[in-house]
């Protein structure tokens, strides 16, 4: 009995320490008149990010795969914030066709985009491929958002100053861009690879958009207790207790995404990496400019971006 109480006390002490040490966004920027897209916003970090941006008055687009979950998220956010300028547009990152359709639907109703938060992500334990012949985790975590972002650059230009926020992970430190779509990596290594891609992409995109007043930054939300870790087994329920103690809540994990979306402190900062609402140092791999350029070329080919599409987005800004 006393041992159990001691364990509970230790876990709660850790939880309190984590709460006190977690970075928070205290910037009170109002987002009225700003058009914001948050991917993967039906739950977890994405929902909390979207909720806070809607609370600040943003015109918000929830972009996710599930119609039911997307519409439910819209209803919850409207109920909580009283902001009725919130809507859902279907986006399935496992389909490049769906990404293109999303862009066309957004363009049909909006002429500008102030903030794009590339939040959606997944850990795929099997090496299955999408309809596009791409590893599922690679497409959800990186190549889908890559295509989405590039196609939305003209709308971001229309809103400048505007921002692109890319959710990565500390796991990027263990990643590589070699043999990305080969399927030879295990699922943990593959996840790390996609997170390195996120950081390299944000740096290369920032370089290509230099002078456009579009800021692009990536972030590590920290270890967050989200659906990535949920299961119904007894063993997993026990692990959930540990995750509750050691990991951030989704609301805490969303703070750096919110910070990068709203903070005036990030004006003119681009191509950087953040943790706990402050600048941080990404791994040496993430600063490899040759690797970033190589990754861009590989990505452009895999998602079948045409030269005309690239020219429309970057012809006047590539240095």
Distance between the termini: 66 Å
Mean pLDDT: 89
Structural class: alpha/beta
| Percent range for β-strand residues | 5-15%
Roughly what percent helix? 40-55%
Number of strands: 8
Helix and strand element order: HEHEHEHEHEHEHHHEEHH
Q: What radius of gyration results from the CA coordinates?
A: 19 Å
Profile the largest sheet. 8 strands, mixed
- Major sheet strand order: 3-2-1-4-5-6-7-8
Please explain how this structure is put together.
The chain is an alpha/beta fold and 319 residues long. The chain is 48% helix and 12% strand. It is built from 11 helices and 8 strands. It has helices at residues 2-21, 44-55, 67-81, 96-109, 136-159, 187-208, 234-246, 250-253, 255-262, 289-302, 307-314, and strands at residues 35-39, 59-64, 86-90, 115-118, 162-167, 214-220, 273-275, 278-280. An 8-stranded mixed β-sheet has the order 3-2-1-4-5-6-7-8, with helices on both faces. α4 packs parallel to α5 (136-159) and α6 packs across α10. The radius of gyration is 19 Å and the shape is globular.
Write a compact overview of the structure shown:
This protein is α/β, with parallel strands linked by helices. The chain has eleven helices and eight strands.
Task: Draw up the topology in text.
Blueprint lengths: L1 H20 L13 E5 L4 H12 L3 E6 L2 H15 L4 E5 L5 H14 L5 E4 L17 H24 L2 E6 L19 H22 L5 E7 L13 H13 L3 H4 L1 H8 L10 E3 L2 E3 L8 H14 L4 H8 L5
Parallel strand pairs: 1-2, 1-4, 2-3, 4-5, 5-6, 6-7
Antiparallel strand pairs: 7-8
């Amino acid at each position: 009995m006393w041992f159990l109480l001691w364990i509970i006390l230790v876990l709660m002490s850790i939880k309190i320490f984590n709460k006190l040490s977690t970075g928070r966004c205290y910037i009170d920027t109002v987002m009225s008149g700003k058009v914001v897209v948050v991917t993967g916003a039906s739950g977890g970090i994405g929902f909390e990010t979207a909720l806070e941006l809607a609370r600040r008055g943003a015109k918000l687009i929830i972009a996710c795969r599930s119609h039911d979950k997307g519409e439910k998220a819209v209803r919850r956010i409207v109920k909580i914030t009283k902001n009725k300028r919130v809507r859902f547009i279907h986006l399935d990152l496992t389909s490049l066709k769906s990404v293109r359709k999303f862009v066309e639907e957004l363009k049909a109703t909006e002429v500008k985009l102030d903030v794009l938060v590339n939040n959606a992500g997944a850990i795929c334990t099997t090496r299955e491929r999408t309809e596009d012949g791409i590893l599922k985790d690679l497409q959800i975590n990186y190549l889908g958002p890559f295509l989405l972002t590039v196609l939305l650059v003209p709308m971001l230009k229309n809103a400048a100053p505007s921002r692109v926020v890319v959710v990565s992970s500390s796991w990027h430190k263990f990643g590589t861009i070699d043999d990305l779509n080969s399927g030879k990596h295990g699922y943990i290594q593959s996840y790390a690879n996609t997170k390195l891609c996120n950081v390299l992409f944000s740096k290369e995109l920032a370089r290509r958009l230099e002078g456009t007043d579009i800021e692009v930054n990536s972030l590590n939300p920290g270890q967050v207790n989200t659906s990535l870790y949920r299961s119904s087994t007894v063993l997993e329920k026990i692990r959930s207790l540990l995750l509750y103690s050691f990991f951030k809540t989704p609301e805490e994990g969303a703070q750096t995404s919110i910070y990068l979306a709203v903070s005036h402190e990030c004006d003119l900062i681009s191509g950087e990496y953040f943790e706990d609402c402050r600048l941080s140092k990404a791994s040496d791999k993430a600063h490899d400019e040759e690797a970033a350029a190589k990754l861009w070329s590989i990505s452009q080919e895999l998602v079948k971006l045409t030269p005309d599409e690239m020219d429309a987005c970057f012809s006047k800004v590539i240095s």
